[in-house]
Amino acid sequence: MGIIDDSLVFERAPLGVDAPELATIESWAAASPDRQRSIADAVVEELRSRIQTECAVELASFGGPPIAIITCGAQSLCLVPGGSFEMGFSEEEEAAVRARAEENDGRTNQYELYWSLLENPHLLRPLTTVHIAPLLAARGPGEMYEIDTACDVLASSKLRLPSEAEWEYLARGGKRRALTYVGDYVPDDPSDYLHITALAAEGANAFGLWGFGIGPELCADVYSPTHDGAALDGSPRRGPGPRVTRGGAGQLFMWQDTGEWQLLLNAMRGSSATWKYEIALRFVLGIQCA
Question: Which one, 145, 157, 240, 265, has the greatest CB density within 10 A?
């Protein structure tokens, strides 16, 4: 993928809504149902004026606080409250993966034949506490686009790409620790991948979102080998060059036993230079709440 201008991937003005309740998951959950509905309606009005498309809204629960699902034509977005989380591969997550590796020692279907997460955990660190502002996020992983057309799609959208911190926050669904968006287990068996893909929207996390890790999803950040210097407000690293990608297990075919399952992990990250053919775009839009 060639040079991508920052304006294509991140610089879309946030929607302005008088809704301090959206600042954190806790304050949003504490709001009355009537207030949650009025905030969702206000967001819809702002979004409609931005994208010039009629939108409908409904509130639903996915095991966490009520989430507003906003449908605009064929696009379905979730209104996600802000919050803080620890970005990166935690010691607890590493311990779970190492324990599973020890269980599988000597198994014919070996773990990582070409690349080992357990040999490279520093690439997913240092663990960094980041605060994410509220945002609208596409429910699913988005369409796959040929690399040459991705810039055109970005330029024509009124939405933007998430920063990698925003992507991981959305994938974790408000949880402090979670290996994948569907659960806290090591998904190292091909049947795990098939199960996750079959779930689709039925496997949504507490934010009503699904599909994280399946496609190689492009993020706004210029790729950096580690989280050193990551912004604490969730904003991306700026500049030209390869972008961060998250996920991509579905592009590598799980039966090859090359460690593709690692790409399903919420903390996993890589470079867009890795993906030569197609890339997925999961669009978001920030919310500025007074």
Answer: 265
Q: What is the dihedral of CA 44, 50, 54, 58, to 10 degrees?
A: -20
Neighbouring C-beta atoms of residue 168, cutoff 10 Å: 25
CATH number for 6-289 (one of 3.90.1580, 3.40.1130, 1.10.10, 3.40.1350): it is 3.90.1580
Q: Which pLDDT value is given to residue 9?
A: 66
- For the chain, the structural domain boundaries read 6-289
CA distance 195 to 218: 24
185 exposure class (CB count in 10 Å sphere: 0-12, 13-18, 19+): exposed
Alpha helices per DSSP H over the chain? 6-9, 25-30, 33-51, 91-103, 147-156, 164-172, 190-199
My answer on whether omega of the bond before 65 falls inside 30° of 0, hence cis, is: no
The model's pTM is 0.95
